[in-house]
Amino acid sequence: MGPVDTSPAIDMPAPLAAGELCRRCDPAQFAFASTAELPDLEGVLGQPRAVSAIEFGVGIRREGYNLFAMGPAGIGRHTVVRRHLESQAQAQATPADWCYVYNFETPHKPRALRLPAGRANAFRAAMERLVEDLRAAIPAAFETDEYRTRRQEIESELNARQEKALEAIGARAKEQGISLLRTPAGFGFAPVREEKVISPGEWSELPEDEQKRLEALIEVLQGELERAIHEMPKWRREALRRLRELARQVTQAAVTGLIEELKAEYAAEPQLQAYLAAVQEDVLEHVEAFRHTKDGETPALFGIPLPQPDAAEPLRRYAVNVLIEHSQARGAPIVYEDNPANDALVGRIEHISQMGALVTDFTLIKAGALHRANGGYLLLDALKVLTQPFAWEALKRSLRSREIRIQSLGQALGLVSTVSLEPEPVPLQVKVVLVGERLLYYLLHAYDPEFAELFKVAVDFEEDMARGPESDLAYARAIAMLARAEKLRPLEREAVAAVIERLSRDAGDAEKVSASMRTLADLLRESDYWAGIAGRAVISGADVRRAVDTQIERADRVRERLQEHILRGSVLIDSSGSRAGQVNALAVLQLGGFSFGTPHRVTARARLGTGRVLDIERESELGGPIHSKGVLILSGYLAGRYAAGKPLSVSASLVFEQSYGGVEGDSASSAELYALLSALAEAPIRQSLAVTGSVNQHGDVQAIGGVNQKIEGFFDVCRARGLTGTQGVLIPQANVKNLMLRHDVVAAVAAGKFAVYPVRTVDEGIALLTGEPAAAIHARIERRLSEYAEEARAWRQQK
User: Fold this and answer.
1) How many CA atoms lie within 13 A of 538 on its CB side?
2) Which residues contact 609 (CB under 8 A, 6 or more apart)?
3) Measured between alpha carbons, how far apart are the two ends of the chain, in Å?
4) CATH value at residue 541
5) Are residues 442 and 468 located together in one domain of the fold?
6) How far are the Cα atoms of 162, 211, 580, 703, 712 from residue 688, in angstroms, in the given order?
7) What is the pLDDT of residues 715-759, one digit of tens each?
8) What mean pLDDT do residues 154-182 have?
């Protein structure tokens, strides 16, 4: 027999009083009758840390100090961030406009032009007017008598030069009795007699010597003619050069004044000056694009048809593609991109179909969110960015290089080898705010080395705030502000108190209240609806409670079904009597946004063995790692308590009965330990009590989550079977501050029909469950283990 426990007897903990089960919000603390009397809340409710981080992140103008606003959804991250950005953006300068224009030197690399804020549309209109003016002025310049005269002179000079050369050859030929003939097929030579070309018959009658002489002369003349004809293209090219120079001079006279006028308007913009100079030069080189021809007439030079360009396409090169303009903006832009795909962030190059082929030009370049937010702020949902292909890399690349480079994914991945546009990058100066869950922030920080360099400011939002008279009044002002913003009825102070109690329950802590603006807004909207159904001008406490009840009712089907299975005996849960090795453990299920508690039967069996505690859930691969850890802690407790100087000659098994899904968490580890101690001591456990709480190796009962739902889950089963006054729940002492139980549970406790016991140690819990002192239970276990040790020794000796 092992040593007897000589520690002093531990008194069983007393049940909690009804007033300790729910911290009420006293409406009498409010001096107002309804929220209509309250002013709007100044600042942000319960988020001093986040507000301070936002102010810092927005204020510091250094590279890499972008923000990541993290916290659970519905906490108001977007609203708070945007409100602070708007207050800062109004005082900042409006950023410049940006345009893309044709690059006359490298056509596939459009140029990006920066213009003062609000001037882009005016510049585009000015260029459109310039083109229209040129289309009128240039043809008019070519219709003048001076141009026609000078053109005629050049053409006449060319014709005269050609005729002179031919006449000289003809004269020399005539002197030799040979005539130069002009035929549709070209030029030729023939001998003449009496100024008439001799006939073939006459040629045959000529002496052979004469024929040879004439043939030699014709061959010489033919050579001279060929040399003259070979020179004529040179003369024609020279004439064409002189005509082009004439056209350039005429065009320059028509163009210079118009472009100089536009240059003077944008004299302070060096980029525009260089662009307009390039435009002027290009117009002089492509003057034919501005010249009109009569309907049905084909332009020609010296009778040679000239290629006829499309009337619209050549002039597109002088268009201005306004990428971003701020004519209506005041201050820095604030942009939220709901669909942050790669193209939506950095822009895209569109294509149009022509004759079955896709074509593009600089006028089809479209801006992305980074362009729109350039010079201001860009808000993005972190999860959406990360789930869009290549969007995260595009965002990081832009922030690192501080420029926006538009590139199709096909080009970036090397999937497209055809020549496409390569627009000039736009310089980037933007403050990016990512909004996401904490897990995303920590994962990115751990696994993306560039993340810490680009997003240096963490904006951490609180889920809840402390309760107190001052915070309750601040919450009431927030309720008043939200009701006015949503155009809801004002709330009576009793309704405000009911809202605070409900949000404290959502926070899972009697000393705190939830900071979820989504939950608050939903509750106010639904309370307003029920106030309207009741025909009230203000929202009462009854309306708030009805809204809460109907929220639960809409989501309560699964909980009711589970309770029905328990009451009908399909799921075995005892709420009366006693049984060794069997405990009612409590668990929380969450489906959607609704969570509820339900009891589970935990059983334990003990036998002679080698000190192993078998977790059936883990062996069947239904137990999660945290649950398995809790069972291993039980083994540590048993070894430390009963086997400090001898082997632990026992094997035990633990299981959640009728559990067909996964089991995770350690909140049932105390229940499993009670079941195991009961099985070892053969001490029956009261089935009218349920247990929750985790345990450590020293036997201390530790806090768990969902304590309110767990208590109410067992209470609902007991109430359905009939409250006897013996039923109750054991919870960790550390969870008392989390109690915000339903009114019916508090009323049952006040009437002595139900009890909630706070326990600090396993000894307190086992004493409550068995009705025996913990020392007696431990003594029985020591005797049992000693018997197992003797049996094991005898068995080994027999072998």
Assistant:
1) 15
2) 649, 650, 651, 652, 788
3) 24
4) 1.10.8.60
5) no
6) 125, 144, 13, 22, 14
7) 999 999 999 999 999 999 999 999 999 999 999 999 999 999 999
8) 71
Q: Which domain holds residue 773?
A: 561-793
Backbone angles phi, psi at 368, to 5 degrees: -110, -175
pLDDT score of 297 more than 70: no
* Full-model pTM: 0.80
Q: Is residue 297 part of a domain?
A: yes
Residues 199 and 85 in one domain: no
Residue 7 maps to a domain: no
Among 291-300, 423-432, 440-449, 727-736, the minimum mean pLDDT is found in 291-300
**Of 161, 324, 318, 309, the residue nearest 235 (C-alpha):** 161
469 occurs within a structural domain: yes
Q: Dihedral angle at the C-alpha atoms of 431, 434, 438, 439, nearest 10 degrees? A: -120
Catalytic residues: 667, 710
Give the number of domains in the chain: 4
Phi and psi angles of residue 740, each rounded to the nearest 5 degrees, phi first: -140, 70
Q: Indicate if 503 and 443 belong to the same structural domain.
A: no
**Which 3 state secondary structure label does DSSP give 256?**
helix
Which residues are paired to 589 by β-bridges? 596
CATH number of the domain encompassing residue 355: 3.40.50.300
For residue 156, pLDDT over 70 is answered with: yes
Helices 743-750 and 707-721: crossing angle, nearest 10°? 60
* Other Cβ atoms closer than 10 A to 426: 25
The H or E element spanning position 86 is helix 77-89
Q: Is 460 left (phi over 0), alpha (psi -120 to 50) or beta?
A: beta
Instruction: Identify the CATH number of the domain in which residue 619 sits.
Output: 3.30.230.10
Task: Determine the length of the chain.
Answer: 799
Distance CA 328, CA 118 (A): 7
- Do residues 627 and 483 both lie within one domain? no
Q: Please tell me the predicted confidence (pLDDT) of residue 33.
A: 92
Domain final residue pick, 413, 432, 460 = 460
The 3 state secondary structure assigned to 3-52 is: CCCCCCCCCCCCCCCHHHCECCCCHHHCCCCEHHHCCCCCCCCCCHHHHH
Q: Is 349 helix (H, G, I), strand (E, B) or coil?
A: strand
Q: What are the pLDDT digits (tens) for 591-606?
A: 888 899 999 988 888 8
Q: Which of 385-419 are b and which e, b meaning 16 or more Cβ less than 10 Å from the residue's Cβ?
A: bbebebbbebbbbbbeeebbbbbbeebeeeeeeee
Rounded to whole angstroms, how far apart are CA atoms 83 and 86? 5
Domain endpoint, select from 439, 460, 481? 460
Check whether residue 528 and residue 597 sit in a common domain: no
Shared domain check, 287 and 176: yes
Instruction: Tell which residue, 462, 454, 540, has the closest CA to residue 497.
Output: 540
Which residue in this structure is represented by tokens 């050579």?
Answer: 223
Q: In this predicted structure, what is the pLDDT of residue 51? A: 93
Residue corresponding to tokens 């007991």: 718
Give the separation between CA 412 and CA 416, rounded to whole angstroms. 9
H/E element, 565 = helix 557-567
- In sequence order, the 6+-apart residues with CB closer than 8 A to the CB of 356 are none
- Give CA–CA dist 211/178, Å, rounded: 12
Question: In this structure, are 336 and 395 located in the same domain?
Answer: yes
Same-domain check for residues 523 and 634: no
Classify residue 56: in a domain, yes or no: no
Angle at 44 between CA 40 and CA 48, to 5 degrees: 145
